[in-house]
Every structure is written in C-alpha cells, then in structure tokens.
Amino acid sequence: MYEVTLSNVNYSYGDQRVLQDITFTAEPGDFVCLLGPSGCGKSTLLRLLAGLSFPSSGGITLDGKQISGPGLDRGVVFQDYSLFPWMTAGQNIVLALEQAFPGKKKDEYRETAAGYLEMVGLADAYDKLPGLLSGGMRQRAAIARAFAINAPVLLMDEPFGALDAITRARLQDLLLQLWQQRQDERKTVFFVTHDVEEAILLANRIVVLGVNPGTIKGVFEVDLPRPRIRQELYHNQTFQTLRDRLVTVLYENILSELDAGQIVASQGDGI
Ligand SMILES: Nc1ncnc2c1ncn2[C@@H]1O[C@H](COP(=O)(O)OP(=O)(O)OP(=O)(O)O)[C@@H](O)[C@H]1O
After folding, report:
1. pLDDT (tens digit, 9 = 90+) per residue, 86-103?
2. Which of 147, 202, 236, 264 has its CA 20 to 30 A from that of 71?
3. How far apart are CA 218 and CA 242, in angstroms?
4. Helix H or strand E segment including 253
5. pTM
6. Which ligand 1 atom is the nearest neighbour of the CA of 45?
C-alpha cells in the first residue's frame, strides 16, 4: 500500500500555468476523486502521477520515492486508448503480466489473464480484439489488466465517462468490489470525474480543483460507511449535504471565472 505525496506541484504548458501549488497526500489505500471544471488540469495531474510528464517545479513521491517515469507500480485506466487495439483482450493482459512478473511460463500468464477476465465478467472475451467489444467491456478489460498487475496505485481518468448510466453503475460497483476485496492490500486510487455523485459514491476523499490556474479549492472527507449502497445513499443526509457543498464550491469557482470574462468550458464538456 503506497502513500502518494504531491508537494507544491506547479505545471505549465509553455506560458500557460495549468497547475499551481498542488499539495496533497493520499494515504495508503485512499480512494481519491479529483473533481473540477473542464480545463482545471485534472488529466494533467494524472499524467504527472503516471510519470508521463514532470512538474515544472515541486515534486511527487510514491511510497517516499520521486516519480522518474511510468512504472509497473501504477495501473492506468483512461477513458479511451486503454487497450492496444491490435491485441486481443487476453493478449493485452498477458503482455502486462509479462512486464510485471517476467520469467514465468506462457501458460501461466494466459491462465492468470483468463482468471482476471472472468473476474470482471468477460470470460468469453479472451480472444476478442478491443474493437469487437462494447465500451463497457473494453473498460472491464482495462480494469482487469490494472488489477492483474497488482500495482499498488491505480490512476483512472474518467474511465466511465463515455458509458451509459447502467453500464457506468455496474462498473462503479465492480471497481469498488475489487478495491475493497483486501483491506490490507488496498490500492491507492486517483479517479478523475466530472460527476459529483460518482465521486461521493467512490471516494474516501474528494479534491476539488479550481480553474485558471488549477489550484486546490477544497478537500472533502466522505464520511459514509462501506459498502455503499447506491439506492440508500441518495436518501442519506450526509450524502445530500456533501453533494450540496461540492456543487456550491464547483459553481462558485465557475461563476467567478465567468465574471472575469473567461470561458471555462467548451460546449457540453464538464461541469
Ligand atoms: N498538450 C497540451 N499542450 C498545451 N496545452 C494543453 C495540453 N494539454 C492540456 N492543455 C491545456 O491545459 C489545461 C488543462 O487541461 P487538462 O486536460 O489537464 O484539464 P482537465 O481538467 O482534465 O479537462 P477536462 O475535464 O475537459 O478533461 C487546459 O487549458 C488545456 O487546454
């Protein structure tokens, strides 16, 4: 179980400051949701955590070590592009297993991959190319791959953003079920979403980012017991109060940006 620490992280694309002074520690086994308006730098922050880019200043440590690039200690699930399209679902997982646990027999990798596909309800998809799977099935396979390599940190960038409401609810439940399975081995998760209710359902803590530049506007503890039952949550007073607070913080930020004459979201994208 890894602690993830961001210390005074700044990031700019050229002259544009995107993230400013991001300081936050995810405790080992935390489920952290990143919420914020479009363009506030959520994906950029995830890229920094993935080691695909590096902070302009400040630092990020995983289990006390500075991130020096991508690594097998982090499983990644993005909205698209999570699987190699030219490999079957099974081959995608086998490849990840070969990299994470080198030196085993091919059959062993295949068996493990098949087991993880079965776990996410995709027993029949081993030999199917991602292009032949629905969006929900592709994300199941991507989750299976992330859990198969058993990385202590899981980075998810709007993984369910393109899915219909029912598939989304099923995958949220699946993700929680997998994450909760072993309390002593819980992954530290960073999950980007635009959806306030999704964030409350999933997270221990919600980090709200503001835009222009992306700064932390607030960190909210989600004080709701687990397992969380969706139907019960909506009637829960703590859930409702937290949802109202989050919406208020998000809209205060957006409205102040609009007052300043800036456009914060492109059409239909984000809150
Ligand atoms: N490769 C890039 N080059 C230059 N600017 C970029 C690049 N990628 C992102 N940006 C800019 O950085 C800012 C933050 O983008 P980012 O994608 O991290 O935001 P986000 O919060 O994830 O947005 P969304 O919710 O719409 O996905 C935006 O203003 C965006 O235009």
Report:
1. 999 999 999 999 999 999
2. 202
3. 12
4. helix 237-259
5. 0.89
6. 18
